[in-house]
């Protein structure tokens, strides 16, 4: 079996071990779908990606994004991590400071945003309030009262996210979910940090940006687990918060605090688009035999 370039990239943190890891097989061409899935199961990360030649002249490269259980049309931290690995392997976009990624959800634009790269959040394909029965299930899964929910909405941009807005970051951090009640729902929760907040929001690390909001994201598949830092949900919730006037055009979200991470997601609204940016660092580099 051929030897292929490989990287494991830490995304959404300036600290190499405090973000969200993604496994990237840089030379993905020629790997069967069965072997891709087997390798994704073996890495046992939330996502493993495979870089491939694009099928359209409009893209710089193509990526397939696999979980241990299947393939995703789009995901945020694998997008930033894959673009980082592609650039480190010598990839150069056709336009300075801009990359076009092809994935199952279509073309995703990435651009340099100061010291980091950001992707344009895909359009929301479902963007509407929850019905009463679904909201009741969400509250049961999060173990919160209905009165605690200020708002809730579908935020589907590939993953089937539901967004829940609470009054404070403290309420978000206090959630202790009931994994058995998720029944496949993917639920993200957001709450604001007060301006004078000095609470636990840095993962024990001093040199991370102070957040404006706190995020947690729970994936309902397989009984439920908490995702450390989630680009796709941050893209959806950014669209929602900007549209409702609850955040400025540029803000920072913290995620992963309860999991002892120091995730920071930099969200910016520009000309009607939501850009989601984050730092990326290669932690493991080498080869795999696939």
TrEMBL record:
Higher taxonomy: Bacteria, Bacillati, Actinomycetota, Actinomycetes, Micrococcales
Protein name: PhzF family phenazine biosynthesis protein
Organism per entry: Cellulomonas fimi
InterPro entries: Phenazine_PhzF-like
Pfam families recorded: PhzC-PhzF
Catalytic residues identified in the record: 47
GO CC annotation, single: cytoplasm
MF-aspect GO terms: isomerase activity
Gene3D superfamilies the record matches: Diaminopimelate Epimerase, Chain A, domain 1 (3.10.310.10)
């Amino acid at each position: 079996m051929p030897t292929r370039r490989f990287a494991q990239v830490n995304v959404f943190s300036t600290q190499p071990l405090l973000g969200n890891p993604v496994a990237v097989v840089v030379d993905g061409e020629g790997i069967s779908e069965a072997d891709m899935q087997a390798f994704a199961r073996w890495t046992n990360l939330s996502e493993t990606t495979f870089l491939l030649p694009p099928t359209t002249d409009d893209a710089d490269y193509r990526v397939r994004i696999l979980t241990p259980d299947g393939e995703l049309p789009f995901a945020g931290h694998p997008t930033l991590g894959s673009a980082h690995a592609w650039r480190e392997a010598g990839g150069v976009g056709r336009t300075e400071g801009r990359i076009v990624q092809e994935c199952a959800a279509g073309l995703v634009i990435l651009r340099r945003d100061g010291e980091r790269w950001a992707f344009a959040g895909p359009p929301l394909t479902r963007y509407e309030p929850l019905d009463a029965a679904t909201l009741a299930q969400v509250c049961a899964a999060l173990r919160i009262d209905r009165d605690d929910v200020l708002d809730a909405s579908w935020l589907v941009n590939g993953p089937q996210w539901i967004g829940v807005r609470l009054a404070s970051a403290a309420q978000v951090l206090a959630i202790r979910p009931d994994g058995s009640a998720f029944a496949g729902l993917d639920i993200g929760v957001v709450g604001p940090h007060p301006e004078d907040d000095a609470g636990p929001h840095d993962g024990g690390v001093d040199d991370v940006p102070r957040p404006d909001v706190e995020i947690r994201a729970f994936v309902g598949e397989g009984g439920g687990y908490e995702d450390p830092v989630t680009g796709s949900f941050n893209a959806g919730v950014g669209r929602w918060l900007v549209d409702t006037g609850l955040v400025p055009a540029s803000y920072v979200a913290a995620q992963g605090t309860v999991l002892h991470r120091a995730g920071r997601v930099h969200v910016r609204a520009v000309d009607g688009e939501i850009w989601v940016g984050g730092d990326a660092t290669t932690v493991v580099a080498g080869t795999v035999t696939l």
